[in-house]
Amino acid sequence: MAGYINYEYYLRQDYRNLQWCPGCGDGAILQAFLRAVHELEISKDDVAVVSGIGCSGRISGYIDFNTMHTTHGRPVAFATGIKLAAPDKYVVVFGGDGDQTAIGGNHFIHACRRNIDLTIIVINNNVYGMTGGQYSPTTPNGFKTQTTPYGNYDNQFDIVKLATGAGATYVARETVLKPVILTKYIKKALQHKGCSVVEVISNCHINLGRRNKMKSPHALLDWIKEHTVPMSKAKKMSEEELVGKVVTGEFVEIDKPEFTEQYYKLCESLKGE
Amino acid sequence: MSKRKGVYTGNELIALAAIDAGCRFYAGYPITPSSEIMEVMSKEMPKVGGGFIQMEDEIASMAAAIGAAWTGVKSMTASSGPGISLKSENLGLACITETPVVIVNIMRGGPSTGFPTAPSQSDVMQAKWGTHGDHPVIALVPGNAKEMYYETVRAFNLAEKFRTPVFILGDETLGHMNTMVELPDPSELEIVEREIYQPKEGEKYKPFDMSKGDVPPMGAFFRGYRFHLTGLNHDEYGYPTIDKEMIRKQQERMMKKVENHADEIVKNELFMMDDAEYIIFAYGSTGAASKLAAKRLREKGKKVGVFRPITIWPFPEKQLDEVIATGKYKGIMVAEANLGQIIFEVERVNKGRLPLKDLLKVDGTPVSPTDIVTRFEEVF
Ligand SMILES: Cc1ncc(C[n+]2csc(CCOP(=O)(O)OP(=O)(O)O)c2C)c(N)n1
Ligand code: SF4
């Protein structure tokens, strides 16, 4: 395992226009991703990183891979084209909770269903960060946002259940507070043959925390800590104890035929026709 | 290739021509009257080892085709009105990232679900302005079975040459009509191959390099150098920018790469125009009907010729202007299967010089030679 990591090697030297607020979870998640690529000793040339629109979508611009910053909600669809045309490459998607479960929900579930070999990292900060903090399909009940000024009364998606139900073959969830475990999950996702979904619970202290009486960035991280439990611990907890808690860990890891492999097997069988 | 002579529908010809032109990626979503293109692709593409995928919708099909294009392959998607409306979002991304991709629209009646099984020419303006923002567009309007094949080949060539999306606008009549056609051996075709830029040692590839002429060289992913693409206004490296000059220069170059080369893209058929007194201006299947109408009108003693654009965008301004400027003609009639779209372009060029009449039809039936003859006799 490669130990020391020179992040500069993975960051673009000629583009540093960081758009993120200081302390935004996106940076820590990017760091975990770079570490995963580094530890797996994957060549930068063999990785495409496709992102949607949102603060999280900015990730692709900062890193020195084959990168595409696409349209809101659509990165999985672009990535599907890349993967099918270049099946031996690593194709990674970054998108926010809005990007992946609202506008891009259809692409997300269909990639899972197809079990196409993508690594989809959903940065779930429970809000639309970039547009100034409107509620998203994962905003918890009661939270105030720019479009739920009286508190959110709408229901939420559980991204892990969504991915699992749709057929993803590796599904994990971790918070931005646990970068080591997160790195491990991203590594497993990259190595897994099939559609992998890693949900990362992140902090938008600017557009979610501050509006909900969490004045310091730290307060929102504390809130995340209080409201999540690792699976090992959750197993020992009662149903009542688990109310309002989000379980983290690995939820799915199965083998199932992968889309591009199936397709190119078909091509092989038709050769010469 | 065997069995190259046979009866084919226009849609089949588009699919076969695409493969012959080197298309190696197709993403689509079924819709009448274009589905047969995807059906042929699902059968033929795996035989040549290219990628085929039926996506979850047209937004995704357009996205997948663009993604694939940046791995270095020629790619295509096809649909009809409602699907083209969905593709329009990512069509914009193809324009701003300067991605060669071919988009087929087998037009049907609209708006909305309209008349799925009926021919129409009501998406010609959508092809030009369907996605938001200033952007270049090339759109070809084949008028018969043979052209469905050859114009598809040309569409791929133009996409490569100008690094931009190219539309093929057919209609239900052309898409479904059966015609006996002999297809050429693909080796006889003039094909523009993708030249994937390979930067020199230590050179950083600039996907939007303004020093390399109007059309910057096309790179590809996974070739040992890395670069960024974005739908945001960007600099030469593809990085987002808010530099006013850079945005202006890139936007203008993007438009001009098509405008400045209109002569290489525009293609018209001038049918019996030399001694004509009247012009019928028509495209697509209506163009073909106009030729028959012109012959019939001549039998009745009216000297009629047809100006039939085969490229509709960029509009053949110069060519039409030259024709009108000869002063030889007494009138012009535009025939189209919509409620008046291209006629405004014709008038923009005509500038009142010739009396301008129309034949506009939207009842779900094709514009027939009889329709044209009747209307012509009414107005001239
Ligand atoms: C088609 C379209 N609709 C709306 C927008 C505006 N928009 C930009 S980012 C965004 C939401 C971002 O939220 P999320 O995906 O959760 O990402 P985050 O910014 O929180 O990382 C929206 C609605 C857009 N760019 N495109
Ligand atoms: S608005 Fe929120 S998600 Fe966006 S950069 Fe700031 S903290 Fe991060």
Automatic annotation (TrEMBL), chain A:
Record has Oxidoreductase as a keyword: yes
Molecular function in Gene Ontology: 2-oxoglutarate synthase activity; thiamine pyrophosphate binding
Thiamine pyrophosphate enzyme TPP-binding domain span: 53-200
EC number from the UniProt entry: 1.2.7.3
GO biological process: cellular respiration; small molecule metabolic process
Main enzyme class: oxidoreductase
Keywords: Oxidoreductase
Domain of life: Bacteria
InterPro entries the record matches: 2-oxoacid:Fd_oxidoreductase, THDP-binding, TPP_enzyme_TPP-bd
Keyword Oxidoreductase on entry: yes
Protein name as annotated: 2-oxoglutarate ferredoxin oxidoreductase subunit beta
Automatic annotation (TrEMBL), chain B:
Alphabetical list of InterPro entries matching this protein: 2-oxoacid_oxidoreductase (IPR052368), PFOR_II (IPR033412), Pyrv_Fd/Flavodoxin_OxRdtase_N (IPR002880), THDP-binding (IPR029061), Transketo_C/PFOR_II (IPR009014)
Gene3D superfamilies (UniProt xref): 3.40.50.920, 3.40.50.970
Keyword vocabulary terms for this entry: Oxidoreductase
Thylakoid is among the record's keywords: no
The organism's place on the tree of life at top rank: Bacteria
Domain Pyruvate flavodoxin/ferredoxin oxidoreductase pyrimidine binding, residue spans: 17-246
EC top class named in words: oxidoreductase
Enzyme Commission number(s): 1.2.7.3
Sections of the chain in a coiled coil: none
GO terms of molecular function: 2-oxoglutarate synthase activity
CDD domains: TPP_PYR_PFOR_IOR-alpha_like
The keyword Oxidoreductase is annotated on this UniProt entry: yes
Leader sequence residues: none
Domain (Pyruvate:ferredoxin oxidoreductase core): residue spans on this chain: 276-372
SUPFAM superfamilies: Thiamin diphosphate-binding fold (THDP-binding), TK C-terminal domain-like
NCBIfam families (alphabetical): PRK08659.1 (NF006412)
Protein's UniProt name: 2-oxoglutarate ferredoxin oxidoreductase subunit alpha
